Amino acid sequence: MTSLPAGPHPVPVDVTLVPELNGLFAPTSTEHDLGDLEVVGELPAELDGVYLRNGPNPRFGPLGSYSYPLDGDGMVHAVRLGGGRAQYANRFVETPALRAEERAGHALWSGLMTMYMPDATEVSPELAGTRKDLPDINVVRHAGRTLALAESGTPFVLSDDLSTIGRETFGGSLPAGITAHPKIDPRTGEMLVFCYGFREPFLTWSVVGPDGAVRRTPTPVAGVERPTMIHDMAITDRFVVLIVAPYYFDIGAAMSGGSLLSWRPDEGTRIALIPRDGSGPRWFTTETFWCWHLANAYDDEDGSVVVDHVAYDAPDTQDGTEHEGDDPPRLARLRLDPRTGAVRTDRSSEWRVEFPRIDDRVLGRRHDRIATVAARTEGADWADTLVVTDPGSGREAHWSAPELAIGEPVFLGDPTDPDPDHGWWGSLAVDRTADLSWFLLLPAADPAGGPVARIRIPVRVPLGLHGAWLPTGP
Ligand SMILES: [Fe+2]
């Protein structure tokens, strides 16, 4: 992310007033290595690999402001499976700023919205006046590198034992960083990314080849004239798909004490289909909606592009406080026709959901199921239900566990079998009744039947964001 002007020196945040710093969210400063975890049920023998999940976990009490989910240090949690056994470990993502704060014994940088950066009286000359890296959103593996990802910032490479190797700029080709939600094409092995910025060009896209070298350097997306918040993307065989809602960065307002982000619902939401061959984007405009996460997109046989996503009336609902008249976030399907410019939107489910995921082995191609999590209990602070929806047929299954806070589902495929019924939905869940967590494995063929295995993690893993299953082997 490009740098912002510095604000005044901030005061500590009263953490008792921030829900996302308490309860199931409360950060931990302990790094564990726990072997031979208890398994209730039976671990599928086919599964050999590691599940990784990232999430905001501030090492020290925040200064000035704390904006969930962007602020906070990254902490990556790992559940290793193999040989019928399970292990757990967690590590901070050790950025230069976090190391400086560890040396100081307290926070030196403010939260994102406060815009304070320490000067050379507080930190080394190389760090003075820089923004803090925030690789706390997601984690992926590409070209043999495990990347802890920030929101439009440079990723950090992690070793197999989760120690931080260092900043990844892709040979200097992507110095401004990438989205926290890159998409890895299982057909080509390419990693497609975008990056927004506060200065022109406000939005670019790039391609990293399967060898880890940049194939397409940052390419401006024509038609984006303002700094705009965009969190996720999708790909198809033909297109990069970006949903561009009217949610703008307003640095002038932030500098005078207002909000850094401005929602303009009267402007409509636009969707860009950017041909992967490098030709100019095709824009579509719909009624205004906000989207944090896309599930997947694909090119349909009739020439249209299908985009499954979670649609909000406005971005404010991300914190669970729905505004009067706002619908809750729901799974929706856009059908875009590049020949006619026509757009159709259909609601795919009545569940209020987030964290949509598919079997990543068909990413960019037709999928027949999307897993999400939903809060079934009225007023719940987090999801207690896993929902699997087929937007094509309307088929839906769910499994609820009121005693658990269930995190993003990730598909663990049987490496010997591409059949999507022969896999498992894995999810890291926090126990609401005890100071411990569970890694759940629900069979893809019958998620409503509940987990076939529950791995007991004898510590509380703070609620977090996104993750990935990384099978062992080529
Ligand atoms: Fe996200």
Automatic annotation (TrEMBL):
GO molecular function, one term: metal ion binding
Keyword Transcription included in the entry's annotation: no
EC number: 1.13.11.-
PANTHER family xrefs: BETA-CAROTENE DIOXYGENASE, CAROTENOID 9,10(9',10')-CLEAVAGE DIOXYGENASE 1
Residues annotated as binding Fe cation: H181, H231, H293, H466
Cofactor dependence: Fe(2+)
Co-factor note (free text): Binds 1 Fe(2+) ion per subunit.
Name of protein: Dioxygenase
Family: Belongs to the carotenoid oxygenase family.
Keywords assigned: Dioxygenase, Iron, Metal-binding, Oxidoreductase
